[in-house]
Amino acid sequence: MNKITIIGTGSVGSTIAYTLTVTGLASEIVMIDINGAKAMGEALDIRQGTPFCNSCTIYAGSYADAAGSDIVILTSGVARKPGQSRLDLAQTNVNITKTIIPWITKYAPDATYVIVSNPVDILTYTFCKYSGLPEERIIGSGTILDTARLRSRLSEYYSINQQNVHAYVLGEHGDSSFIPWSVANISNVPIDAYRDSLIHTDAVYPELITEEVEEYVRKSGARVIERKGATFYAVSISVCHLCKCLLSGIDTTLTVSTMLHGEYGIEDICLSLVNVVGKKGAHSKLLLPLTDSELAALHKSAESLRNVINNISI
């Protein structure tokens, strides 16, 4: 029996609720929104389809209804508009998050909190500073979506199953993110050697242009927003995968945003590294052997986030 509360029933929150229901990850879902009618409508719409999938109780509720939740997902806040950066949203969504924290933690003090709203690294930092909860139970969705976009793109390059692609996007979930190409591989073959390592194949693969892949990953969200006004399917699938890992008895490595305490020489910033995630939350970090240039890119990303924190009120 897994109980999950979702705060915010916009496109992302509602799609997460729908995906959790269809995949059977939750037996009880509480949907909370300042617009109670919207939350009720979304819950009712999903609930009426449950006879054809896994049994799940889903309803609109208040903060008090979150009591006993295993996971609380925060998707509330102002959505990013076309042409707007994630960091432009910072102060408004920090203020919204600060009003939510005391109410939700009062009723669900033992839950693991998954922060999805943007700018996710800044809001994860805010939650760590204000909630008083153990940091391993405060997890930003971070670059799990960016990493999924990267692996999807690389699998297209080489017509290979995405599960055979091992590569990461680290740093801020935003413009200063970067890809540590030195550890990227397909089935343990370094990514830049994979094409030449294949034998007995008539397939012709393009040369890997890392700059093109980085541009694709970094601009994917903006391109979707430009075309359809919002992104919510891929991020919802990513967040549900994170929930699956949190509820599983087997630890999984994911690029999620957590508080740093000296890792790679970075202190008091939330950004994405490779974390070990399981029932105990994001309880460990896996430090990849980064090159000097990759380490510099990580520090640049941390500094970008630090500048935002220094210029807003948290």
Summarize the structure in words:
With 314 residues, this protein is an alpha/beta fold. It has helices at 11-23, 36-47, 90-107, 120-131, 144-158, 194-197, 210-228, 233-247, 292-310, and strands at residues 3-7, 28-32, 57-60, 71-74, 112-115, 138-140, 165-166, 185-186, 189-190, 252-261, 267-278, 281-286. The protein has a 6-stranded parallel sheet, sandwiched between helices. A 3-stranded antiparallel sheet has the order 7-8-9, covered by helices on one side. A 3-stranded antiparallel sheet has the order 10-11-12. Helix 1 (11-23) links the parallel strand 1 (3-7) and strand 2 (28-32). Helix 1 (11-23) runs parallel beside helix 2 and helix 1 (11-23) crosses helix 8. The two termini are 36 Å apart.
Mean pLDDT: 94
Secondary structure category? alpha/beta
- Total helix count? 9
Instruction: Provide the helix percentage.
Output: 40-55%
Along the chain, the helix and strand elements come as EHEHEEHEHEHEEEHHHEEEH
Task: State the total count of DSSP E strands.
Answer: 12
Q: What is the 3D form?
A: globular
Q: Are there runs of 5+ residues with pLDDT below 50, and where?
A: none
Largest sheet: 6 strands, parallel
Strand order, largest beta sheet: 3-2-1-4-5-6
Strand content: 15-25%
Note the gap between the termini: 36 Å
Rg to the nearest angstrom?
A: 19 Å
Features:
alpha/beta; 6-stranded parallel β-sheet; 12 strands; 314 residues; 3-stranded antiparallel β-sheet; single chain; 19% strand; 9 helices
